Amino acid sequence: MFEDVPSALDGAVLDRAVLDTVFRQTEVGVHVLDRELRLVRVTGAVLAERGVAAEEVLGRPATEAYRVFGVEVKESVLREILDGGAPLRDVPVRGRPPHDAGRPHEYSVSVYPLRAPGPDGAERPVLGLVATIVDITQRIRAQQRLGLLYEARERIGRTLDVERTAHELVEVTVPGFAGSVVVALTDAVLRGKPPELRRAGETPLLRCAAVGGSGNALADGPLPEPGAVLLPGLFGERLFGERLPDGPELAAGGARVVAPLAVRGQLLGAVVFRRPPGADPYGEDDLALVEGVTAHTATCLENALRFTREHIVMTALQSWPLRPEGETRHAVELAQRHRPGGTGAGSWFDVIALPGARVALVVGQVERPGLSSVATMGRLRTAVYSLATLDLAPHELLARLHTVTQRLAREQGRARGADEPVASCTVAVHDPVTGRLELARAGASLCVAVLPDGSLDAELVEEGPLLGGEGPPFACSSHLLPEGTTLCLASSARADGGPTAARIAAALAAPDRGPHPMADDLAALLAPERVLLVARTLRLPAADVAEWEVPSELSAVARVRHAAEERVREWGLAVDPLTVELIVSELVTNSVRHGAPPVALRLLRGDTVLTVEVRDGSATAPHLRHAKAGDEGGRGLDICSTLADAWGVRYEGDGKTVWAEIVLGGAPD
After folding, report:
1. At 308, is the secondary structure helix, strand, or coil?
2. Which tens digits make up the pLDDT trace of 286-340?
3. Which of 464, 648, 617 is nearest to 552 (CA)?
4. Span 497-519, pLDDT tens digits
5. Using DSSP, how many helices (H) and how many strands (E) does the chain show?
6. I need a labelling partner for 19 at 20 to 30 A (CA). Which of 98, 276, 425, 649 fits?
7. Upstream peptide bond of 499 is cis (omega within 30 degrees of 0)
8. In angstroms, rounded to a whole number, what is the distance separating the alpha carbons of residues 218 and 272?
9. What is the DSSP letter of 38?
10. Dihedral Cα 572, 574, 576, 579, nearest 10 deg
């Protein structure tokens, strides 16, 4: 197709054609200055675009000619290049062209010396300067918008706090994007409640959450104070009738942009951006930027709101009250602490009163943090309390709790992506009559005892497998503790290593200090989301305990029955002695007849209950049966269950104990 093009294009004709194309058609500003730095030629398309006539600039000195274009130049810089200095390349220059004098433009300027043609290698004289000027305003503004969007994604939402997220939106957009900003959130969001779906034509109650800049983004006057109620008119009827926009919209001739903060149809709030007088009005490109920033902010607000709600639930679950201290005050002096951290680690502690004046101390922790872990903690805590009423040994209780944990894991496993729960738990049962402490441990936890002489025992029981993990057998141990021993239990310390033995000993030293000062000192050493129990062991006073050895013959039943009746009368308890006599008679008869020696009867006097215990050396389980009308026996436990308020059996290594509790009530008969 180029066969008819004359060969002369290889020379002067080609040069003229290129120059003609450059100066008449290209949109790149090409300017030629002579040695006197007068503008002698300029691209015609640029003159037309800028609205400048050629006679206004041609022949004039550069400083005057470029002032017409709204650009200030330094003659000394041009003169230096003309005298042999280095050319300028891509130097940014700001100006206000006459066709758009209301806002500044950014230019990229390059200046080169113009030399006459000559033989290769010969020094060619400088005829003047050639300058290329490219308007890069749109490119710079696009880069600024992208930079602002990147900064918003980096800085907004760094904390899971609703009000802090609103302040971060202000910090990112003032003053670079807006002179003043008002962020308003719905009253429900600020209260931590889930936002309601928007109804057509409804504008919810909005409160000012964050403000920044000067002037007023809403109307003339000062900026509103944080927390102030913003009437619907401020966002609604003054700008858009009686509604909030569904997306970013311009108002007041482009001086303001109003945008909702919404996620999946749920309105969280609204934001108004306003530029100061004299600044560039907002345009369509700015609306796209606002949409990106507000969408990201709304997502961060939703995450913060969800965290706030979950944190409220977790705090409520983890602050369940302990059992009444009056039920255990004869067994231990107790102090408990919880260091919240906001992550919902699922830590719990419990103190459970057991029959026979005993007390169970429980400390546990679900290993994975989160709301589901706190919910699992609540279910495990309920299970522990239920299992404790069965009078199980601590290691047997953990074995059954392990089964419960596995069942929870199977239930949660049906949900996609649910983590199977595993937990650590330590159970300690203290008997204030004998001073015996039974321990069992699943997982890692803090478990130490400080004796009255100040010596520390940090190896009460070995670490066992986690609940829901490898399973039984769990580590267990038994200790005979002197009165005044301080026992310390804390939830899992695997993640942070826990305090050293020396620091524990220092915190728990000095037997004359109470458990509460000790707990304060030790709690300061624990990591957040850990719970702590500090218990000082007590002994039941001898005056509240009565024991008799029972010979293995039925004739002995009458003697111990009358002895028990006399002791109840001596104590002056508000209980019917005949009721005690019948219960003692039936339980002792069963042990003598069906159990194995040695047989012993024990009465324990409490503040609200009298406990009758009969111990024998047989592990045979008694069971309640309902005798027929003509049967001569088989009514022992039936009589006990009728007369007593509670009864049960607990098994020990060398036998069992059958117990019955009678709640103290009205005056004795």
Report:
1. helix
2. 888 999 999 999 999 988 888 777 666 666 555 555 555 566 777 888 888 877 6
3. 617
4. 566 667 777 777 776 778 888 88
5. 17, 26
6. 98
7. no
8. 7
9. B
10. -100
Place of tokens 């308890």: 573
Q: How far apart are CA 143 and CA 504, in angstroms?
A: 58
Structure tokens at 175: 């003053």
Q: Which residues pair with 107 in a beta bridge?
A: 93, 135
Q: Residues 462, 448: contact at Cβ < 8 Å?
A: no
235: Cβ contacts below 8 Å, ≥ 6 apart: 184, 203, 206, 218, 244, 258, 270, 272
User: Cβ distance 130 to 99 under 8 Å?
Assistant: no
Longest dimension (CA), the chain: 143
Residue from 408, 357, 359, 417 nearest 382 by CA: 408
With a cut of 70, list the residues of the chain below it in pLDDT: 1-27, 44-51, 98-102, 117-123, 195-203, 215-222, 231-245, 252-253, 310-327, 340-345, 368-374, 412-420, 492-501, 511, 529, 623-636, 666-669
* Residue 116 exposed, middle or buried by CB count within 10 Å (0-12, 13-18, 19+): exposed
Sign of the CA dihedral running 320, 489, 408, 496: positive
Q: What is the 3-state secondary structure (H, E, C) of 437-457?
A: EEEEEEECCEEEEECCCCCEE
Contacts of 434 (CB under 8 A, 6+ apart): 480
Query: What one-character-per-residue DSSP string does 549-576 give?
Result: EE-SSTTHHHHHHHHHHHHHHHHT-SS-
User: How would you label 318-351 residue by residue, b for 16+ Cβ within 10 Å and e otherwise?
Assistant: beeeeeeeebbebbbbbbbbbbbeeebbbbbbbb
Which H or E run contains 113?
strand 105-115
Rounded to an integer, what distance in angstroms lies between the CA atom of residue 375 and that of residue 388? 20
Tokens 């299992």 identify what position? 387
- pLDDT of amino acid 16: 67
Give me the phi and psi of 253, to 5 degrees please.
Answer: 65, 25
411's enclosing H/E stretch is helix 394-413
Cis amide linkage into residue 473, ω under 30° from 0: yes
For residue 639, the SS3 value is helix
3-state secondary structure (DSSP) of residue 262: strand
The phi, psi pair for 613, rounded to 5°, reads -125, 135
455-465 b/e with 16+ CB inside 10 Å = b? ebeeebbebbb
Contact 337, 222 (CB under 8 A): no
Structure tokens at 150: 């990147």
| Of residues 437, 465, 438, the one with CA closest to residue 451 | 437
**Which of 665, 664, 622, 626 has its CA nearest to residue 647?**
622
Per DSSP, 327 falls in state: G
Tell me what pLDDT residue 225 has: 77
∠ CA 168-174-179, nearest 5°, is 145
Q: Whose structure tokens read 């003043």?
A: 180
Q: According to the model, what pLDDT value does residue 669 have?
A: 43
- Token pair for residue 174? 């003032």
Radius of gyration for the chain, computed over Cα atoms and rounded to the nearest angstrom = 44
CA distance 541 to 538: 9
For residue 437, the model assigns a pLDDT of: 92
Element (H or E) spanning 292, and its range? helix 284-318
Give the pair of three-digit tokens for residue 251: 């108002």
Taking each helix axis as running N to C, give the angle between helix 636-643 and helix 577-594, from 0 to 180 degrees, rounded to the nearest 10: 150
User: What angle (nearest 5°) sits at the alpha carbon of residue 339, between those of residues 336 and 342?
Assistant: 140
